[in-house]
Design a protein that fits this description.
single chain, alpha+beta, 5-stranded antiparallel β-sheet, 4-stranded antiparallel β-sheet, 9 strands, about 35% helix, about 15% strand, globular
């Protein structure tokens, strides 16, 4: 039987219970983590995190685990839904703490911006140290060094003026003449996706957030609204560059939509007994671009801001 490490103390109890149920399913089937990864199609490193509480498994991975271990999928999915809501609450708390910490004033460490000045700072580099500055020869040497420094400053100034005159005479701005600034590394580098994540940006539009690995610990609720007793959410994954709509609790006939610009996707309850409905994803550069709306079977409807 697989020997599991203790779950993190800070893990939400509902998430911990869900992880324990997955562990028992793996143990009953007599599978190793490597075998689970091979049979489900999700990476071994991802399953290591799922089964040790480091990351909430996406719904697709949970359904696949149920299939390879012979566990009723409805049972696992129901527990996953409860764990997913608990994980979202934890994410919101962590983001709030991070945002609060970011507003605290920073205190510079001693010497962080250069060595601290001393009340009795040493003599200028242009002046001789110690008592030599009182001797006539020392005064003459200090004056010579000052004249040399002024001469060098003048040469640099003339060179700068000459360079400016060159560009002006050529009728071009130095930045417009092909001397372009180097793009920032983040802008030039391609999107690097973590293990288990299957899409990013426009590739995610129309795809399922759970099966592509964009949900769980890589997503957070960005906007909320209430329609009757139902909560409408915009879920956003910065890693995947995508958002989707979600409603909880959801019932038969309830629908949820997400809109970003001219792109719109709709979702409903996908499994008997499920209480969560969510849409396929739409690509966004920020969560502010997405709006989620709910239309309930009762006729009530509403949208996030």
């Amino acid at each position: 039987m697989t020997r599991w490490k203790a779950l993190p103390d800070e893990l939400d109890p509902q998430v911990g219970e869900f992880v324990e149920v997955m562990r028992r399913a793996v143990d009953r089937a007599g599978l190793s983590v490597a075998a689970v990864a091979d049979r489900t199609g999700y990476g071994r490193s991802s399953w290591e995190r799922y089964l040790h509480g480091g990351l909430l498994a996406p719904k697709g991975a949970v359904v696949a685990l149920a299939e390879v271990t012979g566990t009723p999928a409805v049972h696992l999915v129901t527990l996953w839904e409860l764990a997913e809501r608990a994980w979202s609450r934890s994410e919101i708390r962590r983001e709030a703490i991070t945002a609060t910490a970011g507003t605290l004033p920073a205190r510079a460490l001693p010497g962080q911006f250069g060595p601290p000045s001393s009340p009795s700072s040493p003599s200028s580099p242009l002046s001789p140290p110690g008592g030599e500055r009182d001797r006539p020869g020392a005064r003459a040497g200090g004056a010579a060094r000052q004249r040399a420094a002024l001469f060098l400053a003048g040469v640099v100034g003339v060179a700068g003026v000459a360079a400016g005159a060159f560009f002006l005479a050529d009728g071009r701005d130095p930045h417009a003449a092909g001397v372009a600034e180097s793009p920032s590394p983040s802008a030039a580098a391609p999107r690097v996706l973590p293990s288990g994540v299957q899409c990013g940006g426009s590739d995610c539009t129309g795809r399922d957030a759970q099966t592509t690995g964009c949900s769980g610990g890589l997503a957070a609720t960005a906007k909320t609204a209430t329609v009757g007793a139902t909560r409408v959410e915009v879920r956003y994954s910065r890693t995947c560059g995508a958002a989707w709509g979600r409603i909880t609790p959801a019932g038969p006939g309830d629908t949820v939509t997400v809109t970003a610009g001219s792109v719109r996707r709709t979702g409903q309850v996908s499994a008997p007994g499920a209480t969560i409905a969510y849409t396929p994803m739409v690509a966004v550069s920020s969560a502010n671009e997405a709006t989620a709306c709910a239309v309930l079977a009762s006729g009530q409807q509403g949208c996030t801001p």
